[in-house]
Amino acid sequence: MLAISKVFSAVLVLGASLQAEAQDAADARVAALAREVADKGWIVYGARAADGAWDLFVSRPDGSGRRNITNTADFEEAAPRFSGDGTKLLYRRFAKGTIIDHDKWGFQGCLVIADADGEQPVVYGADREFPWACWSPDGKQLACLSKGGIEVVDLATREVVNTLQRKGMYQQLSWSPDGLWFCGVANHQGRSWTVVRMCAQTGAVNAVREYQNCTPDWFPDSKRIILSSRPAGQSGDDGYGYTQLWMVDGDGGNQQLVYGEDGCHIYGGALSPDGQYVLFTRGVVDGSGAEQDGAPVCIMRLGDAPSIGGASKDLRTVHRETKDGPVLVLEMGWEPHWTYADIGGE
Amino acid sequence: MRRIAWCGGMAFAAGMVLAGCSAAPDAGLDPNVTSKGSIEVTARLVDIPGEFIDRKDYDYAFVMEYEVLETHRGEVSGKTIYVGHYNPLKARESVADARVEDIGGNVRRFRVGAVHRIALEVPIDDHYMGGIVNRYFEQDTGPIYWALWTNRVVL
Fold first, then answer.
1. pLDDT score at B16
2. What global pTM score does this model have?
3. Which of B124, B125, B146 should we substitute to test contact with A (largest number of A Cβ atoms within 10 Å)?
């Protein structure tokens, strides 16, 4: 009996030791990723400040140098986007106490244009004006999405210089870095929550990915789109499933998982300016946590895609070949974005 | 015991008949339904295609089929029209939100066979920007109407 007990204890000790070694190795890989990205520009995101209000924060991609760049007493700020050259920032400003809706934020509050470090903020329009505004590649125009269509606005004059039919698009508009395309979430061919690509010249639209997709954003090469997707057929959460991060060619080809984790919803996908790293949020509550406190901001190498986090038995059954690269987990936040420009600060 | 049950059943049935007879006709009129939008109809809801999506954190319009009984304002494309109702699981009196502010009515739930007086706009895309569940997409439905105000009607 004593012998059995000793063997059992030895197995436990060995198991604990192996687990500790595996954890050390994982920690080492994450630490290496943190060192790798530390000096690669800045990220910006909305997050709850100490007083509970949403403010904008910037930090190095490893989380260092974090600072609040809005910190207003009477307002809340969220949904920041750097201009292509990294000199400017657009975001939305809400009345204090506003509950930010994860699907309506694009027409909540006022559009603000500021320097990339948050200085010189200018309230660009009244409440609900310039909905779903996004930058043109050169930062001299904005594109906005409203019931009337996609309106291209000259930044300096605020005049609408072009209007396209929105062709069913209804939220999360994004303009490709080469200026040739828009993407967004649309009703398309009878299906809602389809991410579509629209030719900026002709207005022609094609489906990128159908069924339960949102928060699309462009790769730097303008050829691919990163998006959140909740594929059908998942058993988790009583059949509702979990939202994963995918990348797809603009014409709908090459649909590939980037990151997924059973039990978590992955939103806010964005690429580093060189396309080497992926920024996203990983929350246990669907909707990216906009109505609460956001979700942990995460970074992984694109070269590690597809990766699956946690046990994720169901997801691993569907995607058997995963690289399971390291994921750097930063502060709680929402809708992060990345620039390699020097925006100042330590 | 059986007699008591029989009497109770008869009383219940009689009550139901009386209740049905006592429901006063109601044309569904109010200042909103007679003024909002460019079209106003009284119509019977003839089809709800499948289940509504029961996720409180996602907004959508759900397209349903109506038979037009009377057109009060504007014009409709035919006897049968297809109407998108916003977040159909919500009572009309509390359905307005940040995305869709100017809608309402007194219909509490949608039932096939019910008659509604509805203020409408058309096409839906000119007046509503959000997800649309249109299970008639493969059919030739003509334009999809957008319901602004939906009141119940008792004929």
1. 46
2. 0.89
3. B125
